[in-house]
Design brief:
The chain is α+β, with helices and mostly antiparallel strands. The protein has 6 helices and 5 strands, in the order ααβαββαββαα. The protein has a 3-stranded mixed beta sheet with strand order 2-4-5, covered by helices on one side. The chain has a two-stranded antiparallel ribbon with strand order 1-3. Helix 2 (12-41) runs parallel beside helix 6 and helix 4 (86-102) runs antiparallel to helix 6 (160-170).
Length: 183
């Protein structure tokens, strides 16, 4: 059994753990690749209260971030009904949060806010991380573009931001990346 192997040969445990992480990363990549074509092909729009939907998403996400990250959401505190694809929007928000969390310092923070601007809704997500390096910003929406070492597991294959942009486009929007001072 595997536990016997680790007991008899403890040096194999780190190798097995590394292999397990690699397999999980590969599974996540394959799922993202499948989602890219599916998201581009179809949407399942429903009328939903966007403010309540996002509040629920951020509440669930807080449980996943752990106690060392402060996550807050400032909604509009009133129903805002719109046509959305809940699955796409949830996946996009979780991809953004995942990217934030991977690069946050210990005791970091993430703040999201939803505001109306005319007929559009703007979801802004800010964090206390280092941000996207300026030399990478022009390529973050390119599929499979990866300019960092494969060993750095914080970076995927370049599909998360493509999924985020695709979901925004399916909802009549876009994604903007900014790096204001200190945020």
């Amino acid at each position: 059994s595997a536990s016997q192997l680790f007991t008899e040969q403890p040096q194999t445990e780190p190798a097995a753990a590394k292999m397990n992480r690699s397999l999980m990363q590969m599974l996540r990549t394959v799922c993202n690749m499948a989602d890219i074509s599916r998201y581009a092909a179809s949407t399942r729009m429903e009328t939903r209260d966007v403010d309540a939907f996002l509040l629920e998403l951020f509440d669930k996400a807080q449980a996943l971030t752990g106690s060392h990250i402060h996550l807050s959401f400032e909604g509009m505190k009133q129903p805002v009904f719109s046509q959305i694809d809940p699955e796409q929007l949830e996946r996009a928000v979780y991809n953004i949060l995942s990217n934030c969390i991977k690069f946050l310092p210990q005791d970091g923070w993430i703040h999201a806010s939803l505001k109306r601007c005319g007929r559009m809704l703007h979801l802004t997500i800010e964090d206390s991380g280092s941000g996207i390096a300026e030399d990478l910003r022009g390529t973050i929406f390119s599929r499979y573009n990866r300019e960092v070492a494969v060993e750095d597991t914080r970076y995927g294959l370049g599909l998360g931001m493509v999924l985020i942009r695709s979901a925004a486009a399916q909802h009549g929007g876009t994604v903007l990346v900014d790096h204001p001072d200190g945020v």
